Structure prediction request, 182 residues.
Amino acid sequence: MTPKKIISLLITILLLQSCTKDVDFNQLDDANIYASYITTLVYFDVEATNFLDEYNQEIEWTSDDIESKISTASQKYLERVEFTFITENSFNRSFEINIEFKDEANNLIYELEPIQIKPNSPTTKVIIEIPQSEIDVIYNTQFFGFSILMAQSADGTVLSGEEAFKLNLKSSVELFYNYRKV
Prediction:
C-alpha cells in the first residue's frame, strides 16, 4: 500500500468515527411550527376634494366597508393578530381613523382603538394587537369598516378643493400561528 492510500484510509476512518452521535427523535414531539401570514386590508390616498360634497361644502368624515372572511380551518392554532397602519398626512388638520369589525348582518361586533393622525405628519406606523382573549372575534368578522374623521381647522378656514393636501393610509393584518399548539 502506498503512503497516499494509507493516509486516505486513516482520514476516512477518522471521519466516520467522529461524525456519529445518537439522534433523539423524541425531540420532534416537543417541536413547534410557527408561521405567519400577512394580508393587505386597505390602501388609499384621500385628497381635499374627498372631503367636499357635490356643493363644495366641507364634510367631516367618509367611510367604507370591505369584505374579509377568514377561514376557521386553522382557528385553534392562531396565537396572535396584529394590525399595522402606515399613514402620511400633508393636511394642516388632524384625523381619526376608526376600524370596526362587523358580522354578516353588518352589525358591529368589535372595534380597534382609534388611530390618531396629527396635522402635517410624516410617515407614521401604528401596530395594534388584538388581545389573546378576544382573538376569536376575527373569525366572526365578515366586514371591516373604515371611517375617517377630519378635525375642523384651528383657524376656522374650510377646504376649497384646490389645496394639494393628501392623507395616505396603508393597512395590513398579520396572523401568527403555532401549528403544534395543543
Summary: Residues 30 and 60 are 55 Å apart (CA to CA). DSSP finds one helix and nine strands in the chain. The two ends are 61 Å apart (CA to CA). The mean pLDDT is 86.
